[in-house]
Amino acid sequence: MLFKRKHEFKPDKPQGSGLLSNLYLTKKQRLNLAKWVLLAAVLVVLSVMQDVIMSRVSVYGATTDLVAVAILLICIMLDPEIGCVFTLISALLYKFSGSAPGAYVIVLLPALGLFMSIFRHSYLRASFGATFLCAAGAIMVYELIVFAIACFLGQTTFSRLSKFCLTGVYSLAVIPLLYPVISSISKIGGETWTE
Fold first, then answer.
1. Residue 37 belongs to some domain of the structure
2. In a 3-state reduction of DSSP, which class is residue 63?
3. pTM of structure
């Protein structure tokens, strides 16, 4: 091979620099990757805030459940299929982070998120009110199921029901703060499928 052809195929040069420079991703793929990384970063920040700050702050013996609210809110705002897969992975990581109430969150959070996401996408418009309503219902049901399981396992008594309800109410107060952040991140990369 002493002589090279003039029109020999040459691959494109990688765009960008750094860690992603060796990956041949299109602009849409890069934007979708950025969206998922940012959503994961929001969950990590909320997990750290919940474990470091909110675990020391209690009002009337209750505090917020930031990670569960964010996981359910993300699932409700995304398409049901994509949101459920993300919720399943997030719930798994939430369980193994050590701050989840039990292993049942791996099934409970995706099931509630999927049900509420299907309900919102089927019957309600994509708006803050509809998302808040679905997230509020999901987080209150989540707290009541966590309470019922804790009572069944003997980890709490029935007299603590008000504390679990307060945790749900405090978590509802966080939804308007998280909605704009998650909504703006969810719009990165556009819709994955339109009909």
1. yes
2. coil
3. 0.80
